[in-house]
Amino acid sequence: MTDPEHDDTALGAQLALEQGVVDEVYGRLDDLRGQAASSLAQVRATRAEGTHQARSERDSFAAMYADRLATYDAVEHKLVFGRLDLAPGSTDAADGDDASRGPRYVGRVGLSDTEHTPILTDWRAPAARPFYQATAAHPAGVVRRRHLTTRDRRVVGIEDDVLDAEALDPEHRSSLAGEGALMAALGEHRTGRMQDIVATIQAEQDEIIRSDVEGVLVVQGGPGTGKTAVALHRAAYLLYAHRERMSRSGVLLVGPSDAFLRYIEKVLPALGETGVVSTTMSTLLPGITATGTESDAVARIKGRRGWGAIIARAVAARQRVPAEPVRFRLGSVDLEIRPDDVAAARTRARRAHQSHNAARVVFVRTMLQTLAKQYAQETGADLAAEDVAEVVEDLRSHRDVRVALNLAWFPLSAQGLVRDLLTKPHRLAEAAPGMSARDRHLLQRDADHPWTVADVPLLDEAWELIGDPIDPERQAAEVAAAQQAREELEYARSTLASYQPGGSGLPEVTAEQLASRMAESGPLMTTAERAAADRSWTYGHVVVDEAQELSPMAWRSLLRRCPSRSFTVVGDTGQTSSGAGARRWADVFDDLDRSWRLAQLTINYRTPRTVMDAATDVLHESLRREGLHPDVAPVTSARDVPGSLRIGRDLPSAVRESLELGGTTCVIAPIDQVDRLRAELDAPGVDLTRQLVVLDPVEAKGLEFDAVVAIDVAHLGPGDAYVAMTRTTRRLTLLGALPDGLDVRDLPHD
Ligand SMILES: Nc1ncnc2c1ncn2[C@@H]1O[C@H](COP(=O)(O)OP(=O)(O)OP(=O)(O)O)[C@@H](O)[C@H]1O
User: Fold this and answer.
1) How open is the CA angle 127-132-134, to the nearest 5 degrees?
2) Residue at a domain's end among 447, 466, 485
3) Are residues 310 and 456 in the same domain?
4) Distance between CA 495 and CA 1 in Å, rounded?
5) Residue 231's closest CA among 247, 243, 219?
6) What pLDDT does 523 receive?
7) Residue 285's CB: how many other CB atoms inside 10 A?
8) Which mutation among 228, 545, 569 tests ligand 1's pocket best, with the greatest number of atoms within 8 A of CB?
């Protein structure tokens, strides 16, 4: 028989014991923070004297200490959340740690005491893995796993999983206590900002987070299964486990919307990581923001695979051999630009395998030399090298030559080429002879139409083939910058050792990171900032969220950003709303990367079971009606909430009652109603930190709210209806036209 009073005392004693450990860890964090602050103050107080080198060194170290301070601040919340008790004699190959050293504490970062003894294990370290992976069937030497719940710096709860009950001594057995940390996290009110899940990552999620960095990993999972959370934690894990490679090349995260990027922006910093470039497809290319809209039919045409060949043909069409010789006069000599010579120069330039604009230099040089030879033949002179150079320069500046060579090999820009294709029917017909006249007609638009998201991969394709606009000054500056970067890396390597504080528990700063800060292009520019500004940057890893929305052309663009094909792709083909998006992952990846692998997530941590089951019925009904067969696996909700699904009476009362639950409420409606509803409810824009927002289903992708009021779900496509119905953590109220497939008999009507 259990004695409640004894249980309380035992729990109190355990809480006090854990508080002691947590205090020590925070004490160490405070010390390190103090050290970093004083180092920063010291560096800042140093007078920036003399050379550029000395100044940039000072700035770089100042930035490094400022970064450390920011990291210490970011990990403050829930710094310690786990404890592993290992069976006596069990050793861990990862760090040689063994049970005799006492329990192992797991937290956001790794910390050691002043004697260099580890006091906190980084959640990403191999030694922390059993915290997420150990089960009763496979305890991995763990006797007990303890979840610590802290508020501010206070331990307020403990919860134990006994993995090896045999090995537990009676004293330990009586100390088992605590509410489910996971359920507690799931039950919290939403704030409009995603929180990390580091304290409660589940085994199937951990498996994906730590999966091998190489290759394309596709994670399919229904709504709320933690795909976004897993993708972000995987990015943090890879930055930790492959720091050298990732700090040099960076990690790119592609999300569905700016609102989504704001929603998740706090997660990686809270995991101690800031070096990730976040973007949407609309802003993938530096200097271009796609704000235009267009019909789904047009987006679908633009998303088709064949555009690589179409754009290549459009570029090749600007490398032309004239039908007739072009005659001109240089001084008193008659010369001609002959079709055969142009054809030969064109072949030579094409063989250089460079972009159009870079190869143009080869073409022009070849043509000028050919014409200089013709000049020598015509004059019968045996020209010395300087004379040839002079003739070449005269030819280069000759107006007729310039015009003829431009016509033969036109200097292009990606924007100009794509705009021509979309606004000049003859250009598109020439480049896309296989496209139907109807599709070509659909694509045509006015020249001042803003870029759309479906244009971005076409622009990228063109940019790849055409290269940057020709700018000799910039080319020279790039060569000089590359030389300087090499020197700075050498310098950073040689000086870094003396500055590394050591024993801080934080990842060491690499020479590459330091050198990148010293770069002339801006002493405080990080790898991430430089990567974001450079279209041709190739990343160490790319994470793509809501990946089901991307077209085959968008995938081509993204694969270009990481030729080593290290990708984490998360999505749900049941939620696809773009006509150009994916219904089956094999259709996307079999063509792009044969070695792609699939992982599945099956537990919904967001949506109450009643709501999730109804959403699934509606999805299946609408897919059946539309004859669609996406790969969707069944999803089970981790919990239910009484009264979580209801039919509303009218908008004001549905919104009022939703807001009364506390936390956030979102009204989701077909796009043509959104403006009116925003005005009516005084909820303008997409500010997720407000208590009430109005969104269309595409804007709501990836987000979640305490309560959702979904209007006219019957008028939404299958993916959009599924998205709208699965955004809530507590209550879904349906208003207006109800979707087919919903069993309304037992539902409460307001
Ligand atoms: N292991 C976990 N511990 C605590 N919370 C979790 C866990 N896994 C997921 N969650 C929570 O569940 C919710 C849904 O997660 P997330 O947004 O990552 O799902 P998703 O699969 O991307 O959803 P969707 O496809 O519907 O946008 C989030 O609030 C997330 O914090």
Assistant:
1) 85
2) 466
3) yes
4) 66
5) 219
6) 41
7) 21
8) 228
In a domain, 481, yes or no: no
129 pLDDT higher than 80: yes
**pLDDT per residue as tens digits for the range 8-62:** 777 888 899 999 999 999 999 999 999 989 888 887 777 656 566 666 677 777 8
For the CA of 186, the nearest atom of ligand 1? 5
Task: Identify the residue whose C-alpha is closest to ligand 1 atom 15.
Answer: 226
Asked whether residue 300 is domain-assigned, the answer is: yes
Domain co-membership, 436 together with 361: no
CA of 559 from ligand 1 middle (Å) equals: 26
Ligand 1 center from residue 142 Cα (angstroms): 27
**What is the predicted pLDDT for the residue at 536?**
85
Q: From atom 30 of ligand 1, which residue's Cα is the shortest distance away? A: 226
**Comparing C-alpha atoms, which of 346, 345, 325, 344 is closest to residue 336?**
325
Q: Which domain holds residue 547?
A: 203-286+535-603
pLDDT at 207 over 60: yes
Ligand 1 binding residues, C-beta < 6 A: 182, 185-186, 195, 197, 200-202, 205, 221, 223-229, 572, 605-606, 702, 704, 726
275, 329: one domain: no
The answer to whether residue 568 is domain-embedded is yes
H/E stretch holding 637 reads strand 636-637
Average pLDDT, the chain: 86
Q: Is residue 238 part of a domain?
A: yes
3-state per-residue secondary structure call for 371-436: HHHHHHHHHCCCCCHHHHHHHHHHHHCCHHHHHHHHHHECCCCHHHHHHHHHHCHHHHHHHCCCCC
Among protein residues, the one with the nearest Cα to ligand 1's atom 26 is 223
Tokens (6 digits) for 480: 């000089």
Beta strand 567-571 with 111-112 is unpaired
Are 151 and 221 part of one and the same domain?
no
Indicate the pTM of the whole model: 0.85
Q: How far is the CA of 25 from the centre of ligand 1 (A)?
A: 29
Which residues participate in the annotated binding site for ATP? 221-228
Query: Is there a single domain that holds both residue 379 and residue 328?
Result: yes
* Residue 411: pLDDT over 50: yes
Which range, of 33-42, 376-385, 408-417, averages the lowest pLDDT? 376-385
Share of the chain above pLDDT 70, in %: 86
Cα of 227 vs centre of ligand 1, distance in Å, is 6
Residue 96 clears pLDDT 60, i.e. is over it: no
Binding site per annotation, positions = 221-228
pLDDT tens digits for range 318-361: 999 999 999 999 989 999 999 999 999 999 999 988 999 999 99
